[in-house]
Amino acid sequence: MSYSLGILLCVGLLHQTARAVSMDKLADNKICGDAGCSHVLSVATALDDFTGPDCRFINIKMGQMVYVYSKLIPEEGAGVFWSGSVYSERYVHQMGIIGYFPATMVKETQKFTQDEVRIPTTNMDFYCE
């Protein structure tokens, strides 16, 4: 019986990871508030609506509050993207989802730290499920 359970568990895990996709990196480095990018750098307000082109991005609505966790350091000629999460009573289904958005779509309203850490990005930073 435990053998069958183990096989079912493995099949379930393989099914879940088969949907995950490694996407192109948007930048090689990022700025965070700590080495794990787990502390919020700032809070920003969305200046306009943004619909992400793929699963690396989050959708934001004008006026929505966005918690910023990291800021990608762009290569020359590339766009500037930040990662964050939206929080709003109207968009509860998006709460806790972290993704990228153009920095030009938001205005920082409050910074939480002046101590910023520059760290390299990894492929996991751009992993889609």
From TrEMBL:
<feature type="signal peptide">
    <location>
        <begin position="1"/>
        <end position="20"/>
    </location>
</feature>
<feature type="domain" description="SH3">
    <location>
        <begin position="46"/>
        <end position="108"/>
    </location>
</feature>
<dbReference type="InterPro" id="IPR036028">
    <property type="entry name" value="SH3-like_dom_sf"/>
</dbReference>
<keyword id="KW-0728">SH3 domain</keyword>
<dbReference type="InterPro" id="IPR042801">
    <property type="entry name" value="OTOR"/>
</dbReference>
<dbReference type="InterPro" id="IPR001452">
    <property type="entry name" value="SH3_domain"/>
</dbReference>
<dbReference type="GO" id="GO:0001502">
    <property type="term" value="P:cartilage condensation"/>
</dbReference>
<keyword id="KW-0732">Signal</keyword>
<protein>
    <recommendedName>
        <fullName>SH3 domain-containing protein</fullName>
    </recommendedName>
</protein>
<dbReference type="Pfam" id="PF07653">
    <property type="entry name" value="SH3_2"/>
</dbReference>
